[in-house]
Specification:
With 319 residues, this protein is mainly alpha-helical. Helices cover 50% and strands 6% of the residues. The protein is globular, with a radius of gyration of 20 Å.
């Protein structure tokens, strides 16, 4: 989230970024600043003394272009910390998802978004069994874009614990999660923001959103069957009470089960107009209550361990 830096009389809203990431871009096509507002002329000379720098919002398009060009090199650079590489992936996916969602009523160009998803999978493959994004997720406010990115990166992390998924399978899950709710952008705002029950017609429209999201994907050239399954079925529940097809148990595609958990966790841990953010560990407890609320119980246990970093029996019991 932007932070005010410099003299309060001329405070500029600037975006924090890891110095280790920007130091890989030489030379930088824009200025960066210390937390106090002083410009850094040569970031490479700053060495490891500065962990975080700040960027002017007007320079974000240039940062996006740099990440497009060099994200693969950043992901593969193990001299950069896992946390900082996580930031780069998250930031790049935010940019590309935002650009894609602006064209939801047209054929969405998906090339750059697919490239970022592939890099997120590549990064997670080396960090399997870890969840490197938790702190990053809470540094940005809720929106349709931040929710989609949060769900996608969460689903990738969960899928990395399952050896049945290779890179292609994990990428399909990422795409399914990114587009799971995209059709909601075309729905009336009063339905989406309703803090209370929907009427029959509104609920019917809501229950159609997964199919309509898959139509957006298909129109945009995303025809990967597993990605489409992940989107269409991510609101199915193991007891058959979900939608759109009221599937039960093992009939629910495995890709969709991953996206379901990621989608719910993302929504619960975000501040929204009608809901205050739930602490991540409280969210895990709530998701696990009442038999998991129709979520895959085995997968949910894996997710609790993944996010909780369960190092002891006591912690496992608490989660």
């Amino acid at each position: 989230m932007p932070t005010a830096t410099g003299d309060s009389r001329n405070a500029v809203m600037r975006i924090p970024a890891p110095a280790s990431i920007l130091a890989t871009f030489s030379p930088l096509p824009f200025m960066v600043f210390e937390a106090g507002g002083n410009a850094i002329i040569d970031l490479s000379d700053a060495g490891s003394e500065i962990a975080e720098v700040h960027i002017s919002p007007r320079d974000l398009p240039a940062l996006r272009a740099l990440l497009r060009r060099l994200l693969r090199a950043i992901v593969g650079n193990h001299d950069i910390s896992q946390a900082d590489r996580s930031w780069a992936i998250h930031r790049a996916m935010l940019y590309e998802t935002a650009a894609a969602f602006q064209q939801v009523n047209e054929r969405i160009p998906t090339g750059h978004l697919l490239n970022v998803s592939l890099e997120a999978v590549r990064f997670q493959a080396h960090a399997a069994g870890t969840f490197p994004y938790l702190d990053i997720f809470f540094s940005v406010p809720y929106s349709s874009v931040t929710h989609a990115v949060k769900a996608a990166l969460t689903a990738i992390a969960l899928a990395s614990t399952d050896r049945r998924f290779g890179a292609a399978g994990m990428t399909a899950i990422a795409i399914g999660a990114l587009f799971a709710d995209v059709s909601k952008l075309t729905m009336p705002t009063e339905i989406l923001m309703r803090d209370g029950p929907l009427n029959i017609d509104e609920w019917r429209l809501m229950r159609q959103h997964t199919i309509r999201s898959a139509e957006v994907m298909h129109r945009s050239g995303i025809v990967i069957p597993s990605a489409l399954r992940a989107t269409i079925s991510h609101h199915e529940l193991t007891d058959g009470s979900g939608y759109p097809d009221m599937l039960r148990g093992d009939d629910i595609p495995m890709e969709a089960r991953h996206v379901a958990i990621a989608d719910i966790f993302s929504a619960m841990t975000a501040d929204r107009a009608f809901q205050a953010r739930v602490d991540p560990f409280d969210a895990l407890t709530e998701m696990s209550g009442d038999g998991g609320g129709g979520l895959d119980p085995s997968l949910l246990r894996t997710f609790v361990q993944l996010v909780g970093g369960l190092d002891s029996h006591d912690e496992r019991q608490a989660a």
